[in-house]
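Aim 2, interim progress: modelling of the zinc ion-bound target.
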Amino acid sequence: MIEELFPDLYRVEVPLPRSPLKALNSYIVKGKGRFLIIDTGMNREECLIPLQAALKKLNVDLDKTDFFITHLHADHSGLVGVLSTDSSKVYFNKTEASFVNFQPNEDYWKKHFVFYAANGFPEDEMMSVWQGHPGYRYSSRRKITFTVMEEGNEIEIGNYLFRCVETPGHSPGHMCLYEADKKVLICGDHILFDITPNITHWEQLDNSLGHYLSNLEKVYALDVSLILPGHRIIWTDHRKRIRELQEHHRNRLAEALSAVAEGGKTAWEVAPYVTWDIDCNSWAEFPSVQKFFAVGETIAHLDYLVSDGKAKKEMINHQVLYSLA
Ligand SMILES: [Zn+2]
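Predicted structure of the complex, ligand included:
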């Protein structure tokens, strides 16, 4: 589906098969002899073919196209290695550019899984997570030379002047684009409307939930009349949604705190105490990959409680245990 939102600014829905996210919103801006694609879809044919068809309909010439990637997740960055050409600039935030180049990195994943095992994730379930993890399966496979962007840097294309707004939380260097004149915010996965962005643990970001909540306030202050997220519906009232997202995390923090109040627990043991928005009757029914995402999100909440002085974290017998402070 192609939708013209403003003159020369389009949304293309790129399908994400078997993902609860359903589709990625790719935004395409036409300038004077140059194009900009904001986020791309996963590196798989089910994304590539519909996106290529949309680009053809919009007469986008990839030899004259630059890319802006809001964050490292494969559903946003996966196709940039396939679509970018020697003449493309690929704009990417400084934090993630320092440790991601969109080439396969087995060591990164191994380290990731050792960390989850220490947080109680059963090692026998880990292998199916590895094979099913979208980040592992559908990442870009070509080394990219990035044009590194920081807070306040600008991208001018046609009638649009986008300003970079750093919003770490959902990912370590997540970045939005703000068009002040048109009051438009392209917000990646910082704010979603009919689903809630996953906030997980990141090695590169101490207390990711703390960063996320303060960067919701940062965006709350912006004058926005249309917000263009990375998935699902686009909407007008970002401030109401920000208050709902803050409330959502406060509720989960309370659930995690009541779990550790019963005694020391790993994140794996705390996760079933938390309310998850998934179509399963019990924790045991969750697919392994969804358990993996849920445990990551639980760690982010527990680490927030630690930084808030409400919980403490200790390593006991190679397991990370959280308990009341
Ligand atoms: Zn994401």
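The first strand starts at residue 2 and ends at 6. Residues 238-261 form the longest helix (24 residues).
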